[in-house]
Write a structure and sequence with these properties.
The complex is a heterodimer of chains A (293) and B (312). In chain A, helix 2 packs across helix 8, helix 3 crosses helix 8 and helix 6 crosses helix 8. The N and C termini of chain A lie far apart (46 Å). In chain A, 72% of the residues lie in helices and 3% in strands. Chain A has a domain of 199 residues. Chain A has eleven helices and two strands, in the order ααααββααααααα. Chain A is mainly α. A two-stranded antiparallel ribbon of chain A has the order 1-2. In chain A, strand 1 and strand 2 form a beta hairpin. Chain B has 312 residues and is mainly α. Chain B has one domain. Chain B has 14 helices and four strands. Chain B has a two-stranded antiparallel ribbon. Classes of the chains: A mainly alpha (293), B mainly alpha (312).
């Protein structure tokens, strides 16, 4: 148990889980940082992505990449509808009411999924789940090993869009100073639509990827959303690069706690960290103090 | 005075109701409503009056319920002992959660309370040796309530419990009303309106916020003890974050800082799933949609709507 090989295997598992946290948390932190919306239904985006993937696999027998596309597109559609129907009417109101409306949305989506897909847990099976990959002492199926790779590609894509396109610039301008950005001609509605599309796409993609590792049920989004919130807080709310570091950190910390201490503490680690961090460094582990509103 | 008379009339009507209806089902729904009224009115103190968003009411509810269950298991406590113990235990945790509120506000505080709520829930589900895990713990019926050796009342049936819950709810509303309309209540509103100004005119903000959290948590603890004895057991899923969110929705939907609002909200959100029973599996979808609609289109809640009607 105390060999280096064991530690490396745990590290690899932690990176896999951490990269899923990164994807979900990235969308959440974008939506919070740019629009000031606390979206508790984000876990449901993840859950729906997983179900869209599983359903498409069952009907059309697609391989992983087309499935990923199906999951992402489906969830983007759900995300855009939510933005239009649920969050846009709230714009300009009390920010905390977004917490409650997103809770309402989460309840509605979860139970809609229960009706549509049934309560029994499902798992995504593609042929790649049978192909083993060995990197030194670390061992895992190809489908799982691809998760961090795909996550990296998606994160880099978001980075490029944010840094090097006009759309990305308008998103960052909104995050920095909404009123000023509007004065300079940034289209707020368009920014909200793009932000929700990106956020939903990342969560949906994460759902498809993770549905081969964890069983999928209509309630699976609850824990993922809460975990993503811990990541968002640890990384500094609205801080994109903080979310990436904190997501990997949480994934690795959890697998090490589960591997070396006890599995029962696994889920508690993150929340305990959050309370400590909020009390001592409210700007997050990786944030700067001036960013706090 | 008029409000007081209406309250007395409604309570009297509720007290006489079991004479008129025979079915246990209506009484059961009302007992659940009474318990949620205590939760919502308690949350209104900290959220409506003091302006501190808390998504941890479900956790205090759970702490009250599990205190009753564990003290019964280990020390053989009856209702007269579990009720104050549950209130005190939840109040102490309320004090603990009040501390971050001194430094954080808005979203940051809301999310800290969510983290607290989640930790409590995870401990209830995972610390199996102490809390019974997913299976929960048994709690006895209230049985005979004695005072100084006199038997006051026997609580065996749903109907008996209905009277007990009604009494507890009336007491809780009374406590909340007194607090909200006393000096501390006005201090809470000053803190909510402008914390800096409140501090400048000499309001003890630290004390105000902590008292609000403790009072709110204590009421939730009482509701938890009631639930534990009513269901004759506790299990963690009654105290998940969804419960907290529902209680917040009750306060927002009814109308904050009004006492009456949270009561109406509790009635709305507890009765709705029952009314929608015929819709079967769609009921929770509708429930979620109603939650969204009420918060989006009724910013002042039901009470705000009624006030506007009266003015028009």
């Amino acid at each position: 148990m105390y060999t280096l090989d064991f530690a490396l295997q745990i590290l690899a598992n932690g990176i896999v889980i951490g990269s899923v946290y990164v994807l979900v948390a990235l969308g959440l932190t974008l939506i919070f940082g740019i629009l000031g919306i606390v979206n508790f239904a984000h876990g449901e985006f993840y859950m729906l992505g997983a179900y869209f993937g599983i359903t498409a696999a069952a009907i059309y027998g697609l391989s992983l990449f087309p499935l990923l596309l199906v999951g992402i597109l489906g969830v983007v559609l759900v995300g855009l509808l939510s933005e239009r129907l649920v969050f846009r009417p709230l714009a300009g109101g009390d920010m905390t009411s977004s917490i409650i409306t997103s809770f309402g949305l989460a309840v509605a989506l979860q139970n809609a999924a229960l009706i549509a897909f049934g309560p029994q847990p499902k798992l995504l099976r593609t042929p790649w789940a049978q192909i083993p990959v060995e990197i030194g002492p670390v061992f895992m199926p190809l489908q799982r090993a691809l998760i961090p790779v795909i996550a990296l590609v998606l994160v880099v894509a978001v980075h490029v869009v944010l840094r090097h396109t006009w759309t990305g610039r308008s998103l960052r301008a909104m995050a920095q100073h909404g009123t000023l950005a509007q004065l300079y001609g940034v289209d707020v509605k368009r920014v909200a639509v793009v932000t929700f599309a990106v956020g939903a796409a990342l969560a949906g993609g994460a759902g498809v990827l993770m549905s081969s590792v964890f069983l999928v049920q209509p309630t699976v989004g609850n824990m993922i959303a809460l975990k993503a919130f811990t990541v968002v807080i640890l990384g500094g709310m609205g801080n994109v690069y903080g979310a990436v570091s904190a997501g990997l950190f949480l994934g690795i910390a959890e697998t090490f706690v589960a591997g070396y201490l006890t599995n029962t503490l696994r889920d508690i680690v993150g929340f305990a960290l959050v309370v400590v961090v909020l009390l001592i460094r409210p700007q997050g582990l990786f944030g700067r103090a001036i960013d706090r509103a | 005075m008029r409000a007081f008379l209406i309250a007395v009339a409604v309570l009297a009507a509720l007290a006489l109701l079991p004479l008129a209806v025979a079915g246990g089902y209506l009484l059961h729904v009302l007992v659940v409503i009474f318990i949620f009224v205590i939760l919502a009115v308690g949350l209104d103190l900290v959220m409506g009056y003091c302006g501190q968003y808390s998504f941890a009411q479900g956790a205090f509810y759970g702490i009250g319920a599990y205190t009753a269950a564990i003290l019964h298991r280990d020390l053989g406590f009856g209702f007269w002992q579990t009720l104050p113990s549950g209130i005190v235990a939840a109040g102490l945790f309320g004090l603990l959660l009040g501390i971050p509120s001194l430094r954080l506000s808005g979203h940051f505080l809301a999310i800290t309370t969510i983290a607290f709520q989640t930790i409590v829930y995870l401990l209830l589900t995972q610390w199996t040796s102490f809390t019974g895990g997913q299976y929960g713990l048994p709690v006895p019926k209230v049985g005979a309530l004695t005072l100084f050796g006199w038997e006051l009342f026997r609580v065996e049936t749903v109907r008996d419990f209905y009277f007990l819950a009604l009494g507890c709810m009336a007491a809780a509303i009374g406590v909340a009303w007194r607090l909200a309309h006393s000096r501390i209540g006005r201090q809470w509103q000053a803190i909510q309106d402008d914390e800096l100004l409140a501090r400048a005119i000499g309001v003890d903000v630290t004390r105000g916020k902590l008292v609000a959290f403790v009072a709110s948590a204590g009421l939730a603890g009482a509701a938890g003890v009631l639930l534990a004895h009513y269901l004759q057991g506790v299990s963690p899923d009654d105290f998940a974050i969804w419960t907290s969110a529902t209680v917040v929705a009750m306060v927002l939907a009814g109308g904050r800082a009004s006492i009456v609002g949270p009561i109406l909200g509790a009635v709305l959100f507890t009765a709705m799933p029952e009314v929608l029973r015929s819709a079967q599996s769609y009921k929770l979808v509708i429930y979620g949609v109603v939650m969204i609609l009420v918060v989006s289109f009724l910013p002042g809640g039901i009470v705000g709507l009624l006030r506007r009607e009266r003015r028009a």
